[in-house]
Amino acid sequence: MTEVDPADAVAACRAAHDRIIATAAAVTDDGARAPSRLPGWTVGHVLTHVARNADGHAHRLAGALRGKDLPRYPGGMPARDREIEDGAGRPAVELAADVTESARRLEEVWRCSVEAGWPNAHFLGDDRFTTSGSPLRRLREVEVHHVDLGLGYEPEDWPDLYLDWELRHALNRLPARLSGPDGRRLLAWLTGRAELPTGISLDPWM
């Protein structure tokens, strides 16, 4: 699959950071406890996840700059989940500051990575993408979870760079998420042989 130039993805993600930072700054304490669009997660959970994701990317890339192949989350997913749960109930002002400061730390690591020419870009840590793919994957996290907050940012607001990349990515993986009958119904529509099908079931998006 065609990837986006890391420098373009960094620029797009800086703008995405600014948008979600502005949203987070407007959240009240009551709003932080309100349900998000993700089952079982409050707005505070989503904001904490966005912040910890930034720190994970920064940790992995800072390691690559030092010649170390590090995972985003040293304690694995259980440790990441605990940090999200522990941080979700903080006051809104702390949540907003965390989103802002973690994003700026990551942007600084990106700056160093760009200047250094993305050394050790082949390092994977425990991810499926190289370190130079970090800005684009971070852009996905910010754009999707900004919508998940349920605070006025919608899919219609997604920037073209993200849409172009993610739509191709999602469509490329679509066959693996479809069972036989649903796949046939969808293919019939795509080839102009049937109306748009309803009730299609997809395996989880990853």
Topology:
Layout: H1 6-25, H2 29-33, H3 43-65, H4 76-87, H5 92-115, H6 134-148, H7 160-173, H8 180-190
What this model shows, in words?
60% of the residues lie in helices and 0% in strands. By secondary structure, it is mostly helical. It has one domain: Four Helix Bundle (Hemerythrin (Met), subunit A), CATH 1.20.120. Helix 1 packs parallel to helix 6, helix 3 crosses helix 4 and helix 3 runs antiparallel to helix 6. The radius of gyration is 18 Å and the shape is globular.
Q: Please outline the major beta sheet.
A: none
Mean pLDDT: 91
N-to-C order of helices and strands = HHHHHHHH
CATH class: Mainly Alpha
Might you state the CATH topology name?
A: Four Helix Bundle (Hemerythrin (Met), subunit A)
Report, as a whole number of angstroms, the end-to-end distance: 16 Å
Spatial extent as radius of gyration:
18 Å
Tell me the helix content: 55-70%
Shape: globular
Instruction: Report low-confidence residues grouped into runs of 5 or more.
Output: none
Assign the structural class, choosing from mainly alpha, mainly beta, alpha/beta, alpha+beta, or little secondary structure. Answer: mainly alpha
Number of domains: 1
What CATH architecture label applies? Up-down Bundle
Strand composition percent: under 5%
Structure annotation, total helices? 8
Q: Report the CATH superfamily.
A: dinb family like domain
How many β strands by DSSP?
Answer: 0
